[in-house]
Amino acid sequence: LPFLIAAMTLCTAASAQDASLVPSIREELAAATDDTVRSEALSRICYNLTRSAPDSALVAGEQALRIARRINNAKALGDADNNLGWLAAEQGQFARADSLLGIALGIFQKLGDPAYTSVPLSNMGWLAQKKGDSVNALKYFQESLRQSEAAQDSGSSAIILYSIGSTYRRSKEYASAEDYLRRSLALERALGRKGKEANCLTALANTFR
User: 7 φ, ψ to 5°?
Assistant: First the structure.
């Protein structure tokens, strides 16, 4: 599955969306007394409902964006654009997704935090993959990996390595696929994430099938 990281509300297609989290996030939203917290909560609702309730995700994402614009909070703006961009990608609205993810990337580049910048880059990789463009998918994933490594975020790096390995496998570049999947596997083992370790092992088995 594509990856969306959580750095506060920052999400990319890599972490699993979980609609069961939404009730507790709505409780946080109801209790919030600060617009930054409200925008972050709405962005998380948008992300976690992207597949299960896209119409509700759109409402939450647009509310997050309006609040972020009103308070002129760059991080919140980037989060909202990133999540709305991924929602558009999942809905097959590729031009809108390109635009929103590009806006999010520009915002995060100005903030100068590689942990933030890595996220829309990864999502742009998955968007390219959805369009059948493995060349640009690999370009975005590789840049996302560089940013994640610069941020010393091994959890995100492991997921991006898996994305790169899977992309190489689809392109039948099996030696490169094995390299990146094994690197992902090593990180997942070090992190103790058994489910993701199993995904790596399955992908490796499929590579040599």
Answer: -125, 95
Question: Which CA distances in Å does 104 have to 42, 110, 154?
Answer: 16, 10, 22
Q: b/e per residue, 4-34, with b = 16+ CB within 10 A?
A: bbebebbbbbbbebeeeebeebeeebeeeee
Tell me the per-residue pLDDT of 99-140, one tens digit each, with 9 for 90 and over.
999 999 999 999 999 999 999 999 999 999 999 999 999 999
pLDDT digits (tens, 9 = 90+) for 173-206: 999 999 999 999 999 999 999 999 999 999 999 9
> Is the Cβ–Cβ distance between 52 and 19 less than 8 Å?
yes
Bridge-partner residues for 7, per DSSP? 10
